[in-house]
User: Which sequence fits this backbone?
């Protein structure tokens, strides 16, 4: 596929930034919301809310990974150093979004695992 056709398939530069930001924002949201709701969850006994927060933020992070993967696929699935400067920047942003999204998803899972095994109210 020619470079011009690939560049037309890339939807918008803000999608590249969204791929970078969705994962870390989902992780931060998981951390803050779980912390804020912990006292209420322990008092009310609604432990499923913490599990739901984990699942929702994990889905958000994986949506960022999917978005970055889609942008990288549209850019040609090559390493950032190959091709012209514009496509290299697009590939760099897409791969960076993939890495940040996957790491954020791993952090969300790592924070959610203790709630499944030990409970939140120790």
Assistant:
């Amino acid at each position: 596929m020619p470079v011009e056709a690939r560049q037309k398939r890339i939807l918008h530069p803000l999608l590249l930034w969204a791929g970078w930001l969705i994962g870390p924002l989902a992780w931060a949201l998981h951390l803050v919301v779980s912390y804020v709701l912990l006292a209420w969850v322990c008092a009310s006994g609604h432990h499923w809310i913490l599990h739901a927060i984990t699942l929702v933020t994990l889905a958000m992070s994986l949506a960022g990974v999917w978005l970055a993967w889609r942008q990288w696929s549209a850019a040609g699935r090559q390493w950032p150093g190959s091709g012209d400067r514009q496509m290299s920047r697009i590939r760099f942003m897409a791969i960076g979004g993939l890495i940040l999204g996957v790491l954020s998803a791993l952090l969300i899972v790592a924070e959610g695992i203790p709630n499944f095994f030990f409970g939140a109210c120790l």
Remarks:
- Residues 25-117 form one domain.
- The mean pLDDT is 86.
- The helical segments are 3-9, 13-44, 48-75, 85-117.
- The two ends are 57 Å apart (CA to CA).
